[in-house]
Amino acid sequence: MKYIIASLFVLFSIDVFAQKCNCKEEFQWMKKTFEQNDAGFQYVFNKKGKEDYEKLNSKTLAALDTFTDPNTCAEIMLNWLHYFRNGHLGIRVNDSNTVKSGPRRNPTFSIVDKNTILLTIPTFGGSYKKQIDSIIETNKSLLSSKENLILDIRDNGGGSDISYEKIIPYLYTNPITNYRAQYYSTKLNNQRMLELANNYKKYGISEKMANQFRINYDTLNKHLGDYINLDKDSITIDTLNNILPFPKHVAILVNENNGSTAEEFLLTAKQSQKVKLFGHKTAGVLDFSNLWFTNSPSGIFKLTFALTKSYRIPDFTIDGQGILPDLPIGNSVPDNQWIEYVVRILENK
Predict the structure, then answer these.
(1) In the sheet that 275-279 helps form, which strands lie side by side, from edge to edge?
(2) What is the pTM of this model?
(3) Residue 290 carries which DSSP code?
(4) What sections of 109-260 are H helices per DSSP?
(5) Are 311 and 228 in contact, with CB atoms under 8 Å apart?
(6) Which GO terms describe its molecular function (predicted)?
(7) Closest Cα partner for 192 from 37, 72, 31?
(8) Whether 186 contacts 225, CB under 8 Å
(9) 3-class DSSP state for residue 244?
(10) Cα–Cα distance measured from residue 206 to residue 220, given in angstroms and rounded to the nearest whole number
(11) SS3 per-residue string spanning 55-79
């Protein structure tokens, strides 16, 4: 039996690597799907113009002319996608060797010294919300009594906004302005609402929120082809009842791998008088967000695209620019010494 299983695995692996595709046909599928469903397509098309876009398409088709290898085709098609933006989109070969589950990225909490505590959050993924909430609840007495909080979110590529909601009270000093987003309603895009509603436990979502997603699904389907604001306002101002006396100073460590929801969190956090950002400029991947996926008809490729467009556009864009730190940390400071470096700065306040 073990021999049979091993043989089947080898045969499957060979079949995957020997796989060929009609690259031009796959590209035409990707192009049409992206044009019809991505929330940012029309914005970039309007900025760059039809002539420039048609040149891109001709150049891409010419580049694909002699290839049948899926991985090479994916690289060329990804270059086409990057015409629109550098993140919150993608195309990959849809086989078992492409996606590997990485190590768990659990939040951690520690005491640095008598004045400073450290909270590390490597991801805001929805499945980590319970862990993040739990670690904050467990250490609330320290969070409410120590003078300095270092919040290390380096390499946090995003996740879900609800994952950081319990952190905000410890940062809050004044009303917080948030720009909402518009959903681009298509039959394909709206399936994401059903996915979240039907599998809410998987995504760390409450049953109440799952019911709201079902309502959103019905609303969006009544306005196919339109950008729909599922909130009442394009801008909201959030106010909390209390300003906590501690921590007095919050240092958030950031780098070039922070994007998406991590940047949304930073836009919220940096409005606080307590907060300073330390490190490197962030990735700049936020204006078009809320991702969805679809497979090509052949099953060879998986396309990733965005469903929403932020009301920050066009006046306060983040894409391609990123968020600058208040205090840059130069390359002369090794990554493993950032915390020590920031502690010294906090001690001199």
Answers:
(1) 108-111, 116-120, 148-152, 249-254, 275-279, 327-328
(2) 0.85
(3) E
(4) 129-138, 140-143, 168-171, 187-198, 207-221
(5) no
(6) serine-type peptidase activity
(7) 37
(8) yes
(9) coil
(10) 21
(11) HHHHHHHHHHCCCCCHHHHHHHHHH
Residues of the chain with CATH 3.90.226.10: 108-178+236-290+314-347
Token digits for 248? 């007095």
Average pLDDT over the chain, rounded to an integer: 91
Question: What DSSP state is assigned to residue 336?
Answer: G
Which two structure tokens, joined as six digits, stand for 336? 């493993």
Q: CA dist 308 to 15, 156, 229, 268, 345, Å?
A: 37, 21, 9, 19, 39
Tokens 């995957």 belong to residue:
16
Show Cβ contacts of residue 6 under 8 Å, excluding neighbours closer than 6 positions: none
What does the pLDDT look like over 104-116, one tens digit per residue? 689 999 999 999 9
- Cα 343 vs. chain centroid, distance in angstroms? 29
CA–CA separation, 196 and 209 (whole Å) = 9
CA distance 251 to 345: 10
User: Which of helix, strand or coil describes residue 6?
Assistant: helix
pLDDT (tens digit per residue) in 239-290 = 999 999 999 999 999 999 999 999 999 999 999 999 999 999 999 999 999 9
Pairing between β-strand 275-279 and β-strand 227-228 as defined by DSSP bridges: unpaired
Tokens coding 228: 């729909």
10-residue mean pLDDT series, the chain (349 residues): 30 43 96 99 97 98 93 97 95 69 81 98 93 98 98 96 96 97 98 93 86 96 97 93 97 98 98 98 96 96 97 94 97 97 92
Strand-pair category, 227-228 with 181-184: antiparallel
First to last CA, the chain: 68
Contact 87, 285 (CB under 8 A): yes
Domain spanning 108-178+236-290+314-347: CATH superfamily: 2-enoyl-CoA Hydratase; Chain A, domain 1 (3.90.226.10)
Q: For residue 341, give both structure tokens.
A: 């470096």
194 token code pair: 């059903």
